[in-house]
Design a protein that fits this description.
Blueprint lengths: L1 E10 L2 E7 L16 E8 L10 E5 L2 H28 L4 H34 L1 E6 L4
Antiparallel strand pairs: 1-2, 1-4, 2-3, 4-5
Length: 138
């Protein structure tokens, strides 16, 4: 997956990039700059020629994107089914089974949140590679 953005901060080898929206109108000059930005992203790069204001194009491995999609979209669904069937196995009523499935859904989201903050952030910073650099105009 390729994306681009503008370098907002650089501290050592950690670079903070404000990512551009990926749409047909993301790179035109008809709207203000803040409407083109989605969010900030931090990555690690050993390139010394990157400066604040430069536009970078970066790439993330497709398997990392696929893995993240599976975790975010499929895991909560599986957790709901597990919660429902565990409730059913323990002799709960239909309403209690549904409550168990939603409890497991919430627990899966909490697990994903903790996993994202503790594990994924460190891995993502290292797995993203800068593939192009456009120097800011001086």
């Amino acid at each position: 997956m390729k994306n681009s953005g503008i370098v907002k901060d650089k501290k050592g080898n950690k670079i903070t990039i404000s990512m551009y929206k990926e749409s047909a109108c993301s790179h035109c000059n008809k709207c203000n700059e803040s409407a083109k930005i989605t969010n900030n992203f931090t990555l690690i790069s050993d390139r010394k020629d990157i400066e604040i204001g430069d536009i970078v194009t970066f790439e993330m491995e497709d398997k990392q994107v696929f893995k993240a999609a599976l975790i975010v979209y499929i895991l909560p669904l599986i957790a709901m089914f597990i919660g429902y069937f565990l409730g059913d196995k323990n002799g709960f009523t239909e309403g209690q089974n549904i409550g168990m499935s939603f409890l497991f859904l919430v627990l899966s989201f909490l697990g994903i949140f903790v996993y994202d903050k503790k594990v994924v952030k460190n891995r993502m910073e290292k797995s993203v590679k800068i593939i192009a650099l456009e120097k800011k105009e001086r």
